């Protein structure tokens, strides 16, 4: 009899490049570890508002370090994020709410597209260095994804159902003491929850799960 899988709730906001790295890491490791991965788009500014936390980019002195950090992470994970110098001004002045609502709507109406939809926002924002914050940006991404339920998804972005899903995901993360993204919550076989913050905790997750840590698993990138 196979062991019961550990549930993993991955709470993320596409405004964070670190969330993309962690997203890809979990997609790879979900093929190796006995886990049941649940993708949970939430609203990062809501987390900051409740906790009083501030985004790292709000501190100008961190800019150079974050740039170098992403280069190192790209090399390790095989990702291709590009730091852009106006990111600080853009993210502090804009909101990811339309993007996150879109992902919530995809989760509701066309869940098999949630992975490519999430990647599309990150790629547009962190590879192509284009805006992902406006309704027009969301519509462009939606069109490119060729969604079967595109009309329904776009028409639901201001609906209570979609708004409430984002609120529920955010509140559930807050209930586990979330303060940023990526935020990962493991529900162990005994019901105990173990939370991890950041894209550089996979070796500690492995330790908690009593599973091997396989490194970046770049060979799986093209299979997911």
Automatic annotation (TrEMBL):
Q: Domain (DSBA-like thioredoxin): give its ranges.
A: 8-209
Q: What is its EC number?
A: 2.5.1.18
Annotated active site residues, numbered on this chain, are 16 (nucleophile)
Protein name per Swiss-Prot or TrEMBL:
Glutathione S-transferase kappa
Family to which the UniProt record says this protein belongs: Belongs to the GST superfamily. Kappa family.
Q: Which reaction does it catalyse?
A: RX + glutathione = an S-substituted glutathione + a halide anion + H(+)
Per UniProt, what is one Pfam family of this protein? DSBA
**Which GO terms of the cellular component aspect does the record hold?**
mitochondrion; peroxisome
Q: Where does the source fall among the domains of life?
A: Eukaryota
Q: What InterPro entries does UniProt report for this protein, alphabetically?
A: DSBA-like_thioredoxin_dom, GST_Kappa/NadH, HCCAis_GSTk, Thioredoxin-like_sf
Gene3D superfamilies per UniProt: Glutaredoxin
Which PANTHER family does this entry report, sorted A to Z? GLUTATHIONE S-TRANSFERASE KAPPA, GLUTATHIONE S-TRANSFERASE KAPPA 1
Keywords from the named record: Transferase
One term of GO molecular function: glutathione transferase activity
UniProt source species? Mesorhabditis belari
- A biological-process GO annotation: glutathione metabolic process
The positions making up the signal sequence are none
């Amino acid at each position: 009899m196979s062991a019961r899988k550990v549930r993993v709730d991955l709470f993320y906001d596409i405004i964070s490049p670190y969330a993309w790295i962690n997203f890809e890491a979990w997609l790879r490791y979900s093929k190796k570890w006995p886990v049941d991965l649940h993708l949970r788009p939430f609203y990062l500014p809501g987390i900051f508002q409740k906790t009083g936390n501030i985004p790292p980019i709000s501190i100008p002195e961190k800019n150079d370090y974050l740039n170098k950090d992403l280069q190192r992470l790209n090399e390790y994970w095989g990702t291709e994020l590009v730091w852009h110098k106006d990111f600080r001004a853009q993210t502090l002045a804009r909101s990811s709410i339309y993007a996150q609502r879109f992902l919530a709507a995809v989760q509701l109406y066309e869940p098999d597209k949630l992975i490519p939809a999430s990647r599309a926002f990150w790629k547009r924002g962190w590879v192509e260095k284009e805006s992902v914050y406006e309704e027009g940006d969301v519509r462009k991404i939606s069109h490119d994804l060729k969604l079967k339920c595109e009309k329904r998804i776009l028409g639901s972005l201001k609906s209570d159902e979609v708004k409430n899903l984002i609120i529920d995901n955010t509140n559930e993360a807050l209930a586990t003491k979330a303060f940023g993204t990526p935020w990962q919550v493991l529900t162990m076989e005994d019901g105990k929850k173990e939370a991890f913050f950041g894209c550089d905790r996979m070796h500690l997750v492995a330790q908690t799960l009593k599973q091997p840590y396989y490194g970046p698993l770049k060979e799986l990138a093209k299979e997911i």
